[in-house]
Design brief:
The protein has twelve helices and eight strands.
Length: 288
Amino acid sequence: MAVKRGGLGTNLDSLIPTSLTVAGTEVAQQNEIPLSQISPNPKQPRQIFDETAMAELVTSIKSVGILQPPVVRKVAENKYELIMGERRYRAAQIAGFTSIPVIIRQTPDNELLREALIENIHRSNLNPLEEGAAYAQLLSDFGCTHDELAAKLGRSRPLISNTIRLLNLPDSVQRKVASGVLSAGHARALLGLTDGSEIEKLASRIVAEGLSVRATEEIIATLKPTTTTPKKSAVKGTSGAGLAAAELLSDYLDTRVTVQSGKGKGKIVIEFSGSEDLQRIVDLIEGK
């Protein structure tokens, strides 16, 4: 089974292989090659892969394809060696695919390859999921920061962070986004919910009723008390200034915040509902 196209080359099928260049110099090509022609990197330090995470990746790949093409280098005719993306490579094998999209590196200079991928985002008509996967690849595989991406792409840090978070949506919802049935605005609004089944139900309702993004946000506001930690800022014994500060922080961080005052010192407690919610709060504090 050939893998579904995904990631940076999805909308460039007629141009495959697609040359990636920087200042007129070719640094990589995008193509689809048989898995049998790819061998793992013998210097890969990571030998143990979490089984649960791998199973989730296999399910995702079967559903929406490989959104982040692994990076390989050519070592002989029809022979390639992995540089980045061994989890994706292994997951594709488990999923039963016979070929996958890859980025074939023509230069050992990672900086040039990174610049080529950023330029490719500019000129490609990527759907929101592909865009999020491209951002994630640049952040994880090529050491980009949110600041660098925002500056180079002319986009805000919150937009980049929220686009990456779309990859956490349930597979059925991701398919709706990839096909254009759901807009990026609808998808970002759905991230306000944490329960997968609630997200899927609302996504289906959006499609069936033709709900606007604003209407979707209003529905989510009514559902949030059952899926997220309610805001409560007051604690017994807290000063008036502390209560006001807690209320302000609660509104800004969209979670429960308590301010506890003592003699000469105090404590601020910020609650979160999981790792994703924690990252959301950290991004807000950092101004992303």
